[in-house]
Write a structure and sequence with these properties.
Distance between the termini: 16 Å
Radius of gyration: 14 Å
Number of helices: 3
Strand content: 25-35%
Shape: globular
Helix content: 25-40%
Strand order of the largest sheet: 4-3-5-6-7
Largest sheet: 5 strands, mixed
């Protein structure tokens, strides 16, 4: 399963790509640290920005819902897709991953910003928290 909410998003570079094709390779090259990225989308799910929000250690990256929502508002984004890697290679979401995803979704919703998915990239694949119905 690639994404529950969005199987494809439109990239202004004139072609539609599967999300995992865009993100798996760069995130899998980062072996010793966790990187948290955010895809900011407009109302047509066109990519506005793909930004690294935080970089952390092998097992922790601090992400603050307030900062995520603040940046979405600065970009006039109406939707988000969260993406991070697990350097261990296992894309299974942790309790902290699930809790943080719920906090961001709850903070964004009243402001008209949808959280489409949170994808975790591992060594041999990826997991969609939306696909697992974890938020």
């Amino acid at each position: 399963m690639i994404l529950a909410a969005l199987n494809y998003i439109w990239y202004p570079s004139s072609k539609t790509l599967k999300l995992h094709e865009r993100l798996e390779t760069p995130l899998n090259k980062i072996k010793d640290l966790r990187q948290f990225r955010i895809l900011f989308l407009d109302k047509r799910n066109t990519l506005i920005a793909d930004e690294v929000q935080q970089q952390g250690t092998i097992d922790h990256t601090p992400v603050y819902p307030r900062e995520v929502v603040k940046r979405a508002l600065e970009l006039s984004a109406t939707a988000l897709i969260l993406v991070h890697n697990h350097p261990s290679g296992d894309p299974t979401p942790s309790r902290a991953d699930i809790d943080m995803t719920k906090l961001i979704a709850e903070a964004a919703k009243p402001l008209g910003i949808a959280l489409h998915d949170h994808v975790i990239i591992g060594k041999d694949g990826h997991v969609s928290l939306k696909g697992l119905r974890l938020f």
